[in-house]
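Okay, can you check this protein?
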Amino acid sequence: MGAVFTQVNRLPEFDKDLKRLSKRFRTLPEDLQTFIETELRLFHKLNVATQGIVRIEGLGMTDPPVYKARKFACRSLKGRGVQSGIRVIYAWRAASDTIELIEIYFKADKQNEDRERIKAYYR
């Protein structure tokens, strides 16, 4: 299968998050690729409403829309399936067919997304 989206960009902070979490969850980089190719493709390309992706409201901006993926299968967290507790925050630019990965975190470490990071990036 070819590339699902024209571009998938990662904020430098996202790469730091991913690197830090990958030390604990070795399969995370692969799991992220699978997530983009399956969940994000289903949601944005095939319009399949999965309960695992929600739009983040109240950011004071509408473009691009920013989403939180609450269901993310991480193989390093055995037996948890999509309820792994890994959260991915990203923006979707439909016009350019671009996904921008903003933040990835483990719910046990941190309760919610970094709204300041999102706002600072899209100001």
Remarks:
- The chain has a mean pLDDT of 91.
- The two ends are 35 Å apart (CA to CA).
- The helical segments are 12-24, 28-45, 115-121.
- The first helix runs from residue 12 to 24.
